[in-house]
């Protein structure tokens, strides 16, 4: 009995040259040990393994049977998944002219490194400096198999949400706290420090990752396929190539920006004055081509919805509406990171910025984010069915079903040095 949506098996047979496996009565196919079956629906499952010698003669066979029970409890196992708790708090319906249906979750910072398993798979240190949230074991070698079956998560739901979330590090110039003069690094270049985001504090309930509806017809939305890779925003954004603020944008928290009454957004990092917070939003595409989990440019398999009259729909090229993912971060404009002369976010940049940052050309024009889906399918389906299709405003991991996801936990929170303005070596 298990509540995991995967199962792994090791097998061997004397004199075997190859093996064939059949999962749940399917046509037998060539397989190797260890064998990983995923994703698995709730219910009974059987794996049959047959060994063959070098002449192609069938040898011994072995069978394994097990049951996957619901994370919310069922007749096979009434207990809850350890990362699910009961709640008497009922989410309210979404406000008019607001989100159509949404779940908001918190994540703590997991770790930071110069890796990117989507753009530079298998290449250690090939990317600019990223800050990772979610699966605590994410690195350049991560695959859907490794994410879905191993590691914990710094996000609410822990092992139910082994998805990976990452953005470039936000950097501030380093100043001498006594004199206010600019510091230099070991290479004699101007030094930079990472600005920590305000995330993962369950007591404050500062939500940073949203799952919502991107199209008008809520009933048409499907779960995000397991293993889907997504990038939103353009890492090459710079002066003259400013990005669309409907996809990525910056604002000071004091601006009280919103879609309905005050759409005050910036394509670059504004000068937010202490004790304000700098905020950003990244909206991922929510229309899928229905076939590919990735594409050569990591964008073409997905598209953004379009307006048709009064409705928001998916284009015919990408006809499958899926749950919309978005990131929403805040960074405190605090004494250890602000510009000492103005006490603002002046001079801040992203590790991905490839242009000279100045008061005339503020940083942050390369804002983008990456997401790699490794949610437990039953948990993601519950989010879709109740919070999104039900038109509810589900906060802090509340699933709207009398259950909520467990709280956040930190990863290693390791921070490598800032090298080359975050570009790495």
TrEMBL record:
All residue ranges annotated as the DUF1996 domain in the record: 116-375
Superkingdom assignment: Bacteria
InterPro entries: DUF1996 (IPR018535)
Region (Disordered): 404-425
Protein name according to UniProt: DUF1996 domain-containing protein
